[in-house]
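To whoever picks this up:

The parser on our side crashed when reading a file containing two proteins. I've narrowed it down to the boundary between the first structure block and the second sequence. Both blocks are reproduced below exactly, byte for byte. First block:
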Amino acid sequence: MGPRGPRRPVLVFFHGGAFVLGTSNVPLYDEANFAKQGVVFVSLNYRLGIEGFLKIPGVPSNLGIRDQLAALRWVQANIANLGGGPANTTVMGESAGAMSVAVLLASPTARGLFRRGIMMSGSGQAALSGVQASRIAAQYAKVLKIPNTARVHRRFTPEQLLAAQAQVTPKIVHLETAEHAEPTGGLALFFPVIDDDIVPAVPLDGLRKGAGGAVDMLVGYNSDGANYCLVSTGLLKKNRLNLILYKAARLVHPAPAALVAVHKKAYPKKKLGELFSTVITAYQFQVPSVRLADALARQAGRTHMYELGWRSSVAGGVYGAYHGLALVFGHRALITGPRGVLGPAGAPAALATQMQAAWVAFAKTGNPGWAAYRPGARGTMYINTTWQLQPNPHANEIQAWAGGALAPGPRR
């Protein structure tokens, strides 16, 4: 018999990690602060990389997503015994976890398993075609020197399989096809695979046709999302950065010079490295988030949008509002100080409190505290030490991406 009293909202969290790494069992994902505010918090692990997303004939597809579905079914069947209300379940993810939320939102197999969703720095375009997935599987089998069959794969230990996975990188697998662009511009390889079952189509395409139903959504991204990669690889300090900027734009847009010109005009004070980050952030996070919100806002559920602009002071502030920053506000004791990812001073306590309160309010009611997103108006809450609901922010830059190759969905 379960606990007595009112049922609490349930928040189910999917961790990120490019579908190849990560675990829920790290201090950063110990969201005790959510539980303290009256939410039953659930986190889980799911199969990754070759175990979760390699296409092998005769093996069920998308095992990582199937793990997430199994967890959501468990929540529906059992969470009442822990005081949670199964009918008031919110799924939340960051990065690949947010992409998972989009996949589940568009999947008929997840219908009725959650009422709301939170996507932090994700995309509705994270799905490989069967052709792309087969290219990855072929390269993997080549490394192992085996045919791509389930029977042969079973001969190897997990350690051997993972060692082979490390040799299969985006640099050696050409994923570009006439219908599908290369996911993330070559930064990652494994994604959910279109299978006419768990993933019937690229999530954004399904959502544009109404697959999301009446699910409420909170969607957002960070202003300097690409810095997590560009700073650590030293790209922002490379010589001939102007050439690199145009080459990068050429990879992701049919009119690279025009695209760069629009961003230069919008941010005249930005240095080349900062401009490079802005273009890649738009490609990976900003424009996919806006396109997703546009599709969702035309459905029965309410959609809310945010942009996190608060900048970390770590490493002299070079990382800014980088990818993953939204996760850390509840863990100031872990990540402040000279080596902390928020910088020596950490985040303002009021900002952390306000962000958590907004997320909890959304999980409880579907309203984080600001007006719902509408196509055209595109009201977006800009989150910093002060909060401001902005109408149609970055309109010119987002419009410049119309017709661009935002991977991995079908080209338009």
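<<boundary where parser fails>>
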Amino acid sequence: MLEVCLFLDAYLPDAAPNSVGPALILAFGGAFHRGSKEDDTIARPGVTNTAMAEYCRRFAAQGIACFSVDYRLAPADPDPGDTPVLTEPDGVPTGRIAEVREIMGLAPITAREVSWAMEAAIDDVAAAIRWVHREADRFSVDPKRIVVGGWSAGARAALYAAYGEGVACAGVIALSGTIQEADLKAHLRPGRRLPPALLIAAEHDLSYVPAGVEGTASAIRRADGQARAVHVPGHDHWYPAEAMTSAGLTVEATMLDALRGWTR
């Protein structure tokens, strides 16, 4: 297997000497085809999404060590690895991916080929989480207080890393990310220790996301885990941090509230 070197950006708070605190690891969105740890905003008229790197900057200012992570993308034809978590690779959602490939001037690909890119991304996000665990002392991070998350494709990768790969974390924040129904049945079992989750979807999100968010949250709860689904009224998939949620807070504040609750 070809070894690939990936990077992450650390956004660190001004910490008191000898103190450790929580951490947030975020994975960017982009339909597993585009975006980066530096910027995953989409150029479009009107309101657009907040980059994962910007969330990192904002939360670091709140005293939380943050990491924006890279992962391999579909155009590079990444190796899917040997720890598959997608139980129905021919059933992964491809609608948005088809649109993005057309925008990028790329030929159509099958759902199974999409699944290979997803498996690679999940492996990479899982590897980033494990790396932060190993390097926790270096960044004054409490390894028991590491929360993971992302937006869109990055949220899906984070969810699968936590619930499919079983990477240890204190919670998962998924902005417009879901787990497929077949995979929920395969990976979420009562008796298994599951991290809590906050799942956010917009009112006019990608077609499969709102129901998928509710289904993912419900499945986690049925498996004796804790999960909350929150909605963003009046917005589509590209909602900003300042958008108000059904929880009565902005997206950013809802994320921070969940993170603080899990890492006290």
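After patching the parser it read the second block fine. The two ends are 41 Å apart (CA to CA). The helical segments are 52-60, 95-103, 111-134, 153-163, 181-187, 209-222, 251-262.
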